[in-house]
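Why does residue order matter? Because the sequence determines the fold. Keep that principle in mind as you read this record.
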Amino acid sequence: MLNANPPTEQNTDEDDCPICGLPLKYPALSRFDNKTYVCGQCGQSEGTGFLFSLFDDTQRIMLQDREWANTYGLTEWQAHCIVIAAINGSTLGYQKKSREAFERLREMMDNGTLEKLEEE
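Structure:
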């Protein structure tokens, strides 16, 4: 589960984005509290996400209302992270998961595991 609150100390050269987990290569100041650094993509989504999202009106209202956060006992920060992740869609997570999957595939190819799976 995501941290209940935004990080209190960050090193933008070494830390990852507290929303999506990618490096803070070109950080932006989060609109959540104007203290927390997030990656540029998450910062852009915070600022313009609903303007350029593919959500329909019902989905947009549900995400903005955040009544669901109380139902699941989420903090404001956790709800904020979920909304931004939803706005980002799968692109940021997809990039990270693709790299991880590619690395696992390469390992499987190198150690012969992939060939064994293909034979089954």
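DSSP finds six helices and two strands in the chain.
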